[in-house]
Design brief:
Distance between the termini: 34 Å
Order of helices and strands: EHEEEEEEH
Number of helices: 2
Radius of gyration: 15 Å
Helix content: 10-25%
CATH superfamily: START domain
Strand content: over 45%
Largest sheet: 7 strands, antiparallel
């Protein structure tokens, strides 16, 4: 299974960056290969926000939609995502936000496996490159907040 992590120092306050990451419906506006993003449920509680969402990702002819379960823990300022449907056999990613004096440190790690073994092989080879492109897109957009 491909695993990778990236840490970025982003100018901006932690709360705005967390809200930005949780604004899933806007992902298709700036994330490479994200064609559509849709939120089905959003439940806010005192210490948690839970979201069920779809992301349609790809480049023709390889386009697929996967459903994810997103949980933001307000106490730890962390976001945990798992897949609940679609082409992924396994997905787990985590976001951690740490406010520093002049920036917020954003840590992101992801571990996934695609059901299609051929596509999984291709993704394994180019995964870190793709993750860096996505992180670049998030950082560029976040710094404009």
């Amino acid at each position: 299974m491909p695993k990778a992590s990236v840490t970025r120092q982003i100018a901006g306050e932690k709360k705005k960056l967390i809200d930005f990451v949780l604004d899933i419906e806007k992902y298709s506006e700036f994330i490479p290969f994200c064609i559509e993003s849709k939120v089905y449920e959003r439940n806010e509680k005192e210490d948690e926000i839970a979201i069920i969402a779809d992301l349609t990702i790809g480049k023709k002819p390889f386009v697929d939609t996967y459903k994810s379960d997103v949980h933001y823990d307000k106490k730890t300022d962390s976001i945990h995502v798992t897949n609940i449907g679609g082409p992924l056999k396994h997905l787990e990613n985590n976001w951690k936000f740490i406010q520093r004096e002049k920036f917020t440190e954003v840590q992101f790690d992801v571990d996934f496996e695609i059901k299609n073994k051929f596509l999984n092989m291709i993704m394994t080879k180019s995964f870190q490159f793709g993750l860096n492109k996505i992180a670049d897109a998030f950082q560029k957009k976040a710094e404009k907040l």
